[in-house]
Amino acid sequence: MAAADDLSFDPWDPAFVADPYPAYAELRERGRVIYYEPTGQWLVPGHADVSALLRERRLGRTYQHRFTHEEFGRTAPPAEQEPFHTLNDHGMLDLEPPDHTRIRRLVSKAFTPRTVERLKPYVHRLADELVDGLVRAGGGDLLSDVAEPLPVAVIAEMLGIPEADRGPLRPWSADICGMYELNPSQETAAKAVRASVEFTAYLRELIAERRKEPGDDLVSGLIAAHDEGDRLTEQEMISTAVLLLNAGHEATVNATVNGWWALFRNPEQLAVLRADHSLVPSAVEELMRYDTPLQLFERWVLDDIEIDGVTVPRGAEIAMLFGSANHDPAVFAEPERLDLTRADNPHISFSAGIHYCIGAPLARIELAASMTALLERAPTLAPAAEPRRKPNFVIRGLEGLAVTL
Question: How far is 119 from 160, CA to CA, in rounded Å?
Fold first, then answer.
């Protein structure tokens, strides 16, 4: 059994967080599955294994559909964290069949390709307006001026959250997502609980309003969605709305700033893109691969599983390293090279299997819209300073990205 003790994999080391990709190469050399004592997880760094395990039904995002905490050898979360876990555990990302199947089917009735396609003009108009503001100011912070407001506004528009109510959405999301980092602190948990309580209370009121006066929005659609007598419970609606908001902008915000910082560090590739805007779709895919916004995704082992001759026992937790899988030379030629024309690009930044990101089509539209607007309206965009990276490992992003024109 391989161990990670003497490797440079260290999610709390700022140097590792700044550039985890060399450490991933070490992990892939070491083996297909490596036990990591500090988090009690089995790390899986290879693309083929991550891709297969995302579809493996002996693994689950939860175990509570089959086992109690005690039966599974785990301790129940502290009672004071209950508001966060109630919110989190009723969202389809953290459920397994049959609940996951039922909820995803019902959500899909409201979150249709037509709904997403109908948003395209709004997304492009908003991207143009945000970039025009950046240009008028002669520069600014790409994160707070463009990357953040675009997907937050889009998903809020989809959900039917009035503009006047949108201020707390990003802070609530940031506080809740803090719990997805490895070994979160008590302070992180307290922030997540407070945000969960406030966000839940807000959505309960919004759902009550939409029950009285339905609109042409996703919350109204979730209320109306039913299939063979099945409906979403109110908690499932609340958890789904929070999941769609959090997942619907966190990755897009970070993919935008990570992507532009990668372009600034690879000026020859940026020049290629500026010369040919038709490369935007493949550029979006390559930038998602090159600096992955979600670096790690976890699964519980529901039944013993063998990986490369190593038995990972029931009750263990597997950490699939998306960032490592997206740099696996067995799948990607010269993975450390940014290549916006890369044709064969089976990155797993949107996951795979039954938990494949339901919002992937919308994320692609948003990323392409902001990139196109910046290429067309700010053709001389350049970094104004070296950005500071967020200390987080799992959700990878920048504190900001100062730009000039």
Answer: 13
Q: Looking at residue 86, which CATH number applies to its domain?
A: 1.10.630.10
- d(CA 93, CA 196) in angstroms, rounded, equals 16
Handedness of CA 245, 353, 293, 40 (dihedral sign): positive
Host H or E run for residue 354: none
DSSP 144: I
Q: Which two tokens stand for residue 101?
A: 């199947």
Give the domain extent around 194: 2-404
Using DSSP's 3-state secondary structure scheme, residue 298 falls into strand
Q: What would the pLDDT profile of 155-192 be if each residue is shown by its tens digit?
A: 898 899 999 999 999 899 989 988 988 889 999 999 99
Strand bridging mode 305-307 / 41-44: unpaired
Environment class of 394 (CB within 10 Å of its CB; exposed 0-12, middle 13-18, buried 19+): buried
Domain count, the chain: 1
Q: Tell which residue, 397, 85, 28, 15, has the closest CA to residue 239.
A: 85
C-beta of residue 146 within 8 angstroms of C-beta of residue 401: no
Residue 228 confidence class, pLDDT cut points 50, 70, 90: low
Compute CA distances 242 → 87, 115, 177, 207, 218, whole Å.
8, 18, 11, 13, 12
How is residue 87 written in tokens?
Answer: 């919110």
**232 vs 226: CA distance, rounded Å:** 7
Report yes or no on whether pTM surpasses 0.85. Answer: yes
Sequence-ordered list of residues with C-beta below 8 angstroms from that of 94, at least 6 positions apart, any chain? 61, 62, 88
Question: Which tens digits make up the pLDDT trace of 20-62?
Answer: 999 999 999 999 999 999 999 999 999 999 999 999 999 999 9
CA distances from 374 to 20, 137, 397 (A): 28, 14, 19
